[in-house]
Amino acid sequence: MIRAEHISLKISKIEKEEWDMIKKTLKINGVERILILDKDETLAQVLRNHLLLTGCKIGCGEGHCGACNVIMNGKVTRSCIYKMSRVPDHAEITTIEGVGTLSDMHPIQVAWMAYGCAQCGFCSPGFIISAKVLLDNNPSTTREEVRDWINKQ
């Protein structure tokens, strides 16, 4: 037999789940986007599944490998572990798709290809994003600073 308190419990659970949806206004690769999404989704899931920006890879899913790196408000962000509830409204996010185009590649992308850094290519977007942030902040880095930066990312 179904009791009234069971029904109200189920209804309140449904209402709560509806409240888990959030509205975010973000600038992604220079384009303002208004999104309604689950607050517990990760930034990587939103980029890949909702916006089809698949250059952001999900490697380890734990924030260790860096394949998911994107730039958020000028800083490298591990998008596979960054929940949408933590993404500030009006955040500026740059993915590998926003770094350059096939007809106008960023110098880091050109160097990546010219020096054979790509290997299989899975983690290349994350490394290029990390290198871009480093060089944006310090265009005259030493080899040691680059090594330290990449090891921290």
Query: How would you describe the oligomerization state of the chains in this entry?
Result: single chain
Query: What is the number of beta strands?
Result: 5
Integer-rounded radius of gyration = 19 Å
Mean of residue pLDDT values: 87
Question: What descriptive keywords fit this protein?
Answer:
153 residues; five-stranded mixed beta sheet
Structure description:
- The protein is of the alpha+beta class and 153 residues long.
- Helix content is 37%, strand content 18%.
- The protein has a five-stranded mixed sheet.
- The chain is globular, with a radius of gyration of 19 Å.
- The model has no long low-confidence stretch (mean pLDDT 87).
Question: In brief, what are we looking at here?
Answer:
The protein has 153 residues and is α+β, with helices and mostly antiparallel strands. It has helices at 4-19, 43-50, 107-114, 124-137, 143-152, and strands at residues 21-28, 31-38, 69-72, 75-78, 92-94.
